[in-house]
Amino acid sequence: MSACNLLVIEFHYIVIYIKIYLIRWDVIVSLTDEDWQALSLTLYLASIVTLLLFVIATPIAWWLARTKLRWKSVIAAVVALPIVLPPSVLGFYLLLAMGPNGVIGYLTQRLHWGTLPFTFEGLVIVSAFYSLPFMVQPLQAAFESIGDKPLEAAATLRASSFDAFFTVIVPLALPGFVSAGILTFAHTVGEFGVVLMVGGNIPGETRVVSVQIFDYVEALEYQQAHKLAGFMLLFSFLLLLVLNSVRLKKQF
Amino acid sequence: MAENKIIVARFRLARCEFMLDVDLTLPGRGVTALFGHSGSGKTTLLRCLAGLEKDPSGFLSVNGDCWQDAQHCLPTHKRPLGYVFQEANLFPHLTVLGNLRYGIQRIPSAKVTDLTSVIDLLGIGHLLNRKPERLSGGERQRVGIARALALNPKLLLMDEPLSALDVQRKNEILPYLERLHDELEIPVIYVTHSPDEVARLADYLVVLEQGTVLAEGGLFNVLTRLDLPISLGEDVGVVLSATIGAIDDAWQLARLDFAGGSLWTRHHGFGVGRTLRVRVLARDVSLAVEHPSLSSIQNILFGVVDAIGDDHHEGLALVRVCVGESVFIARLTKRAASELNIQLGQSLWLQVKSVALLE
């Protein structure tokens, strides 16, 4: 039996090897420097936004999951707005707010930071707004499903709320944190409209992959667009694969 | 100081179904049972004692230490208590040992009780490396009790620790609770709706209904009150403290001596001199005006009628009879009471059909 099985396994390895080889040959090697720049900028942006949102969204999600105030639904709706709002609308308002006459712009100018539109920092801020619901909602759901009981047990075991959050809630909500992190990261990688509105198209500063692909298509360079698009397709698929396996693990 | 060995608790808290309004002074040692039906406020009261439920106007002092008054209120995590939840409420992400250590890591080491003795007391030594999901309901509850005791608390609060378990699991845990009752020096407040658990474990009884205290006092006294049968229903009865006075090997019987008389019951293997709790239900006691000479019921006592009251059914009456210093309650139909012409102060014979040994 083993000879036959070995053959099959060997065949699998060969197929996988050929696939990897093809991907390498077809896509990775032939990406231009500009493509690599856009890719690394995109991943860098998504990483920063994800980390930033872990810090910002966790307290918001916690508050939304725990509060009994009636106007909590107002806050929840504001947080969820980017899901339904056209990205250009959100981008438009943020552009105005960050401009020289906007609220954020006034603040950044007073702090001698200049204005944020068409800078990487500006891109981080709009992306954080745009991806906020994708971080808040999975976290809120995870916190809500944990309920009060573990916190009460922790309190009777001498743990303050702060202590209990990190030693009980975070470990119990870990699958929620993973989901929220991956969703936020993927969503930030995929944004286009908001970036174009606020960030423009400056190589190495604000030109992300989606904008780069758009540029290729506009210039009718379909071959280059294909390679970058294919790369993103594979990347997104793998990300969702990881996400789903985390969810499955949580279920069993 | 002896007079400091008390728990004083005053709480007023509005809930949708009831208004909790209690002003209690409870013994600072032994097991106090908070007894009542669901919605009587007993769990809410327990949560107030733990600080899990906030009443800004409440007051609580435990054996001389003030935990809550008008000026300040210790948050739950600063109260030196142990809390056993209804369904154990163990941390699912930690092993049994992790659960036991969680609280210990958060208190000064001088105050920690000897963890191995707690593990032995509850018989959970073989479970330490398991996750809670791999424990049975009874094992989980034992770990929950050990987790609370490991902190060497000054007050142990238990919220219906047996209610989520089936009869078999209950019987698995009750011996451990009885050991706690015998060995613990600290006050225990035990919420339950089970008359059986009350009879086995409680020293002091608080009966709650609609958030208010219906009756409170020593267990033996409260159980002999005739104005409470509504709460107990079929389980009206008294609990006596008795000592095994003799054993009849030929008939496999044991004689239980109580203040005022003695009863024979099946021999359960307890030695002479052992003190036990004995429960005699009102439905197992019948009355006779003359000495019943030929009867299968051999436990016959002589007593004086002390009180007559109504039972939960219109056709039934409860009669309280003093036998020496002890008190029994008999349930009979009102017709029988009328035909026997039972009066206060009357002397008559009691036939006790069965008794339950509780410890």
From TrEMBL, chain B:
Pfam families: ABC_tran (PF00005), TOBE (PF03459). Keywords: ATP-binding, Cell inner membrane, Cell membrane, Membrane, Molybdenum, Nucleotide-binding, Translocase, Transport. One of its GO terms (cellular component) is membrane. PROSITE patterns: ABC_TRANSPORTER_1, ABC_TRANSPORTER_2, MOP. Residues 1-235 form the ABC transporter domain. InterPro entries: AAA+_ATPase (IPR003593), ABC_transporter-like_ATP-bd (IPR003439), ABC_transporter-like_CS (IPR017871), Mo/tungstate-bd_C_term_dom (IPR008995), ModC_ABC_ATP-bd (IPR011868), Molybdenum_import_ModC (IPR050334), Mop_domain (IPR004606), P-loop_NTPase (IPR027417). Residues 294-359 form the Mop domain. One of its GO terms (molecular function) is ABC-type transporter activity. The keyword Cell membrane applies. This is Molybdenum ABC transporter ATP-binding protein. It comes from Methylocucumis oryzae.
